[in-house]
Design brief:
heterodimer; A: alpha+beta; ten-stranded antiparallel β-sheet; two-stranded antiparallel sheet; B: alpha+beta; Lipocalin; nine-stranded mixed beta barrel
Chain lengths: 305, 248
């Protein structure tokens, strides 16, 4: 009996993204669905002429259930046809364009020390994906495929972004309150938001650095500063832009983008995806020699620098 | 209206002593319901034992939250409770970092925050990133059978009291660290009543024919956390357990 909710959640988590990918729409929100760059370039223009609905207090109303599109979990840098994992017998990766829109080459501008850790490097080869270990996918991987909900409660002091993925939530303070002190870190950062025109801008720091960006072990650390921009481009589509800045890990700020598409199934609600309570994978991975992540590879590297 | 004290002199008198709290919440939401929004936390010892108990090493003494103190266990369930108590160090689901269920998460010694809109009330818990959504849009429980660690919550307002009906639990959560427990037939009816700007009278009635001979009720006060810039942070027990084991 106890497994039914987990099985249901897993079935949804596994089947829904496959279905979404197999449909292969030519456009998303009236913009090209060929890749993040084409979509995002078009979406920025489209947002200029679209007037979003308003909440009763007059803010842009982004509320509802959403699901990432033009997103895949394998690598933010995209998947090229010649990568060995494309032909993997157990879980073949799909060829996909980069989700990185800046720099133009679609590659994460790592500093040299970080290259062998990310990009199917030390993280991927030696560590349990923190999402598999029930840590949650982290910002912004959370918003790739599983259903999410934007909730704008009464009073406009917070915007909530809730994720089915491992019951992860983000409380985005909208009232200009002081940030958390440097001595406190949390998995998904201290998120403070404001409206720039019709765009919800989320500014986050104080990450604990335990998150990966994707299945291939690309990563950021506890010194990252992430700025996300959510803009409605039609009634059922959000442009989602994520800018990562960390002079200690990257040579320059860089930006990802994809779409959030409204989930319109009648009666849809987020379900509970308990993870730790039912997971049976981690012990086997530990026995195979994989280690818990907790930011160890870059922490050790940082200590010797 | 943002500061909530423009309407009547009485409201002004109530809110003036704490401008900070007043700035955080009006007494009513925009649809006229009592405004439960804010950060709340219990000040009791129910997390250790929901019944009257003397101090034990590491456990503060406490007066219970069970109305009348006695829990009407069936004889078999009472034996199970005693067994749970004896084995509590390892048998308590809390020790594995699992979601604590409802109502247990309400009286964990951690803050939680209530967010409110006409169609739903969302609670975010510092403990284990817990989320509860109490739908107040008139929808019924979904068709079962279903088992959720935190149950399925549907609410409505009875006057100024929020009443939540919670069902579809697992049999794997406990009610405290002393081995009090329930089965997956648990049905909880919660009542949230704002006593004043900074206190919620919270009541939960538990029915479970597999374990209890009749329904019983727990009652406690939720206190508003009033420190400037107080925030719900993160206590992820599963990750902390894994991290402690990994570093050994």
């Amino acid at each position: 009996m106890r497994t039914s909710a987990l099985v249901l959640a897993l079935a949804i988590a596994l089947l829904a993204p496959l279905g979404a990918q197999d449909e292969k729409p030519k456009t998303v929100g009236g913009c090209p669905a060929t890749g993040s760059l084409a979509f995002h370039t078009c979406a920025i223009e489209k947002a200029k002429t679209f007037t979003p609905p308003r909440t009763r207090s007059g803010k842009p109303d982004l509320q509802g259930y959403w699901r990432g599109q033009l997103a895949q979990s394998f690598s933010m840098e995209g998947v090229r046809g010649n990568e060995p994992l494309v032909g993997d017998k157990v879980m073949p990766w799909r060829i996909a364009p980069p989700m990185i829109v800046d720099p133009p080459d679609g590659r994460i501008p790592y500093q040299p020390w970080a290259v062998p850790i990310g990009r199917i490097g030390v993280n991927y080869k030696d560590y349990v994906d923190p999402r598999t270990a029930c840590g949650g996918a982290g910002v912004p991987r959370l918003a790739q495929q599983d259903a999410n909900q934007i909730f704008q409660p009464d009073g406009d002091q917070f915007v909530l972004w809730l994720f089915e993925d491992h019951h992860v939530q983000r409380m985005i303070a909208m009232d200009g309150r002081p940030p958390l002190g440097d001595g406190i870190t949390v998995t998904n950062g201290d998120s403070r938001g404001h409206w720039e025109g019709n765009t919800l801008v989320i500014d986050s720091k104080n990450f604990n650095g335990y998150n990966w960006l994707d299945d291939s072990g690309n990563f950021y650390t506890d010194t990252a500063h992430i700025v996300e921009r959510l803009t409605m481009i039609d009634a059922d589509t959000l442009d989602y832009e994520v800018r990562v800045e960390d002079p200690k890990e990257f040579t320059r700020p860089w930006t990802m983008a994809w779409a959030q598409v409204r989930v319109k199934d009648p009666g849809f609600e987020l379900l509970e995806e308990a993870c730790r309570e039912g997971q049976r994978d981690v012990d086997s991975l530990l026995q195979q020699g994989f280690k818990y992540y907790f930011g160890n590879p870059w922490r050790e590297r940082a200590a010797s620098r | 209206m943002r500061y909530g004290f423009t309407s009547t002199l009485l409201a002004a008198l109530l809110f003036v002593p704490s401008v900070h709290a007043a700035a955080q919440t009006s007494a009513r939401t925009s649809d006229g319901k009592p405004n439960l929004q804010g950060i709340w936390q219990v000040l009791n010892t129910a997390a250790w034992d929901i019944q009257d108990h003397s101090a034990r090493l590491g456990v503060p003494a406490g007066q219970g939250i069970v109305v009348g103190n006695d829990i009407p266990y069936t004889p078999a369930a009472l034996a199970k409770k005693r067994q749970n108590f004896a084995n509590r160090a390892t048998a308590d689901p809390e020790s594995k970092g699992y979601l604590p269920g409802v109502p247990r998460i309400m009286y964990m010694p951690f803050p939680f925050q209530i967010f409110q809109a006409p169609d739903q009330i969302v609670m975010i818990f510092e403990y284990d990133r817990g989320i509860r959504t109490i739908y107040t849009n008139g929808t019924p429980h979904p068709r079962g059978p279903l088992n959720f660690w935190m149950g399925d919550s549907r609410g409505h307002w009875e006057g100024d009291t929020l009443v939540a009906d919670v069902t579809y639990f697992t049999d794997e959560t406990w009610l405290d660290r002393a081995g009090n427990f329930h089965s997956d037939a648990l049905h909880v009816i919660e009542r949230y009543t704002l006593a004043d700007a900074d206190h919620i009278d919270y009541e939960a009635t538990l029915e479970d024919a597999n374990v209890f001979t009749k329904p019983w009720t727990m009652r406690m006060v939720l206190y508003r956390r009033k420190e400037p810039n107080v925030r719900v942070l993160e206590y992820d027990p599963g990750r902390l357990i894994d991290e402690a084991n990994a570093s050994r």
